[in-house]
Amino acid sequence: MSDTIISKSVQDETPTTSSSGNSEGSGRSSKPADLKAERMRKLKELHLKRNEARKLNHQEVQEEERRAKLPTNYEARKRRAEWILEDEDRRTRCEAEGEDYDRVKLLNVQADELERINRLRARKKNPDEGFSTYEAATARQYKRLVTNMKVDTRNYEEEKEALGEEAFYAGKDTLIHGLHKDKPENVDRMVQDLEKQIERREKYSRRRMHNDEADIDYINERNMKFNKKLERFYGQYTSEIKQNLERGTAI
User: Fold this and answer.
1) How many whole angstroms separate alpha carbon 177 and alpha carbon 180?
2) Would 236 be classed as within a structural domain?
3) Same domain, 52 and 85
4) CA separation (Å) from 116 to 107, 109, 112?
5) Are residues 51 and 83 in the same domain?
6) How many CB atoms lie within 10 A of CB 225?
7) pLDDT computed for residue 129 by the predictor
8) Residues above pLDDT 90, as percent of the chain
9) Tell me: the pLDDT tens digits for 34-57?
10) One domain, residues 89 and 112
11) What angle do CA 25, 27, 31 make, to 5 degrees?
């Protein structure tokens, strides 16, 4: 009887032990599988990031090639065009509301910024970059004189009708000597302009430091200024020739 009870108890305990062993074994077998799945997931994420970086890099290369083919001042022209469109839009809105756009625009501009803009406009209107060449100085003076002249359209048409188009628009084979006669008021205006130029030139000249030890290679003050201009612009090219002439070794 006792042997029967012991065997029965052993049989009752045996399934419990086997079931716990199976659960521990399944836990040990599921751990490497989870680790492998986690690694595969990370690898897949890395592949996706690499493909995205490759795509973005390709797009950036294409954009850089497109910018390289554009003109050098493309960005400035683009900003200028956008500003013009915005300015026209604001002007249209102000006119629709019955306001003066120039006045409204000046209310939003600071005084120092407005002074800077006016200086830039004045510089563009009459640029004076100093003396560069005699041709440039003559062309600048010609433009200034032409700008100050007032065209008399009535006198223009009368002279054109009196001379005829062939003599008025003279070519290289047209003889116009004695046809054109200057009016006294035009001659007086030319004399007045020359006197103003002389007066302005005298006021512009400023006193400079005089070097007593410098070589005297001029005959008057005007010739001295001319020689200084030549030396400033052509001295680096003629220094060797001048030294050879002074030494007497020029060929």
Assistant:
1) 7
2) no
3) no
4) 16, 11, 6
5) no
6) 13
7) 62
8) 11
9) 888 899 999 999 999 999 999 999
10) yes
11) 120
Distance (Å, rounded) from C-alpha 79 to C-alpha 82? 5
Q: pTM above the 0.70 mark?
A: no
| Within-domain flag for 61 | yes
| pLDDT over threshold 90, residue 116 | no
pLDDT tens by residue, 175-208 = 777 777 788 888 898 899 889 888 887 777 566 6
Q: Would you say residue 224 lies in a domain?
A: no
- Amino acid at position 106, single letter: L
Q: pLDDT digit string (tens) for 137-154?
A: 888 888 877 877 777 788
Statement to judge: residues 87 and 116 lie in one domain: yes
Number of domains making up the chain: 2
Of 110, 64, 105, residue with least CA distance to 88: 105
Rounded to a whole number, what is the distance in angstroms from the first to the last CA of the chain? 146
Query: Which tokens is 175 given?
Result: 């003889």
Q: Which domain holds residue 38?
A: 31-69
Q: Is residue 207 part of a domain?
A: no
State whether the Cα torsion 159-163-164-168 is positive or negative: negative
